[in-house]
Design a protein that fits this description.
The chain is of the alpha/beta class. Helices cover 13% and strands 21% of the residues. It holds the Pfam family Cellulase.
């Protein structure tokens, strides 16, 4: 007897190719797909999932990301890094830097990421199946690995009420930048997450421009989520010749051997000039 299976057409469908698209002399420009599953009509609700590891992936980091993200572009769908190594049991600064570079690459291509893995799970049991063999955010003794917790707690925009042009985080200064064209028809806020414990122990400064483009700003009670609500004034809409531009700077006052100096860069985006002051610190 046949049974009808209902589906929710509003949900996103993740799909992926084999995860070794650039190993064993296999061309990393080929995935085996020519369109999203189901055809182009499903492109807007499809997400191309891919993995990256320095091994077994052998392609250069940026080249590999370029190919995977442009695969998604060619199929008119989104891309998402659904796996990369976040293990760092030795709490190595070099590993911290490597993990940060992968996340920087995700920011460069304006895509999201998921790290592997949270904890060993079955792999920690007697005769358990290893699912990556790393301890992830925990140390073997069960305590939190503060270095892994910090690297995955970097500042990012959870929601953006417009079209993202640039997203950038500097792990040395904890300065975060987000540029996007407003869509004044969107009533939900842009939400930026900033972890106070690991990146802003003495708080942060928030700067945005033009100030008239934001109707209101709210902060969560724990201080780690900032919501920025777009103006309804269509003169700031990104579709006009003078597009609205937002520049967010989360300025860190760190506790590690900090030294402050003034740095005044000037940014020109569609006739909008943004000036900001960054307090930097030595990163230990």
């Amino acid at each position: 007897m046949a049974h009808k299976i209902d589906n929710d057409s509003t949900r996103m469908i993740f799909f992926e190719s084999v995860t070794w698209t650039d190993e064993f002399n296999v061309s990393f420009t080929e995935t085996g797909f020519t369109h999203v599953p189901g055809g182009e009509e499903y492109a807007k609700q499809s997400v191309f999932s891919f993995h990256y590891y320095s091994l077994p992936n052998v392609g250069e980091l940026d080249n590999y990301f370029y190919e995977r993200v442009h695969d998604a572009y060619s199929w008119k769908c989104a891309a998402f890094l659904t796996e990369f190594d976040i293990s760092n049991e030795q709490m190595s600064p070099e590993t911290f830097d490597k993990q940060s570079r992968v996340m920087d690459e995700c920011d460069n291509y304006k895509i999201s990421w998921i790290g592997w893995e949270y904890k060993p799970l079955a792999g920690s049991l007697p005769n358990g199946t290893c699912t990556g063999c790393g301890y992830g955010i925990f140390l073997p003794n069960g305590t939190v690995n503060e270095m892994v917790a910090k690297v995955v707690s970097r500042t990012f925009a959870q929601f953006v009420s417009g079209n993202v042009q640039l997203i950038q985080f500097d792990k040395g200064t904890a300065v975060f930048k987000l540029n996007f064209f407003l869509n004044t028809t969107i009533t939900q806020p842009t939400v930026v997450y900033a972890n106070l414990k690991y990146w802003y122990p003495q708080g942060y400064d928030l700067t945005y421009s033009p100030t008239q483009a934001i109707a209101s700003v709210t902060t969560s009670t724990d201080g780690q989520y900032t919501q920025l609500f777009n103006t309804r004034d269509t003169s700031f809409d990104g579709t006009l010749t003078f597009p609205a531009f937002l520049f967010l700077v989360l300025t860190c006052f760190m506790k590690w051997n900090w030294k402050c100096f003034f740095f005044l860069p000037f940014f020109f985006f569609n006739s909008v000039i943004c000036i900001y002051i960054i307090h930097t610190s030595n990163f230990a």
